[in-house]
Each structure stands twice: as C-alpha cells, then as structure tokens.
Amino acid sequence: MPSLQDQLMKAGLADQKKARRAKQQKREEANKAKRGEIEVEDPAERARRQRAEQAEADRQREAQRKAEREKKEIAAQIRQMIEQSRIDRRDGDVAFQFVQAKKIKKAYVTAKQQRQLERGQIAIVAFDDSYELVPTVVAEKIRQRDEAAVLLLNERGSNEVDEDDPYKDFPIPDDLMW
User: Fold this and answer.
1) Is the pTM value of this prediction over 0.90?
2) 3, 124, 140, 175: least CB-packed within 10 angstroms?
C-alpha cells in the first residue's frame, strides 16, 4: 500500500522538494526533542490548555452577547418612554432650531411648545429618524440611559440677573428669531 506522501505526489498535490523538506523538518524536531531543546508537550496538558482557552473564549462571547442584549433592552426602554409620553406637534407652525451632530436641525412646534422648550419644561429627543417632544422628567430618564438620545433639554434656571453682567440693562426681545 503506497504511503500518503506517494499518493499526494501521484495526485500532483506535492512534489519531491516539499517531501524532502517535510522529512528533514521532522528529523530536526525529533533531534531537538532528544537533546531537550524542545519540550515535548504532554497530550493531557495540551488538552487541559485547550479546554481553558475554549472556556475563556466562551466567557468573552457570552459577555459580548450580554452587552448587546443590555443595549437592546435600553433602546426598547427609551422607545417605550418616548411612545408613551410624546407630545403632539402636528399643528406646529413655528420653526424651532436646535443642534444635532454639529448640524442645525429644524422642528415645527406650536408657539406654546416653543416657550416650553425655551423654559426647559419640555425637551427634544431623537426617535428613529425623527424628533419628538417629551416632558423634562421623561427626558431626564432617557438621558440616564443614553446621553445621545436627548437632543435639546434647556436647564430650568431662574431669571435672576447676574450683577456683574454688562448687558443686564439690555433684555433679549421675545420676538427674536435665529
């Protein structure tokens, strides 16, 4: 019965040069093992090491799956909060501009909603490919889960004027539009 090497050479998958190189490499490894230069690995030790490597890889995959699952859960929570508490802005006739990813975006709101946005009573959040208005309380809960989802949330500040402000005598007109 011909050897595997002979069969490979007949099939044209190997040649004499490769066969000689493989034999020489095998002899060299055997000689090094005899001299003690290469430690011959125990099959039981190799199997134990492979099991440990496989267990570590499994732990890493499971941690990645868990992180993805948590990310999806947070996205679902945000979606649910927005759907349950969004404010209707269909009758919006005032263009309200805000910044998203270094670009100025525009959302049409009512005059009442515009005042509420300016005072920080409601906020603008990203929802799929659009924008929605939600109460400040909901926006804070969304911000705890994902900072990037809240596009505009003005802080509720008191209208106190700073004594050192050089423009304190010049109030901003209410009808100023950007």
Assistant:
1) no
2) 175
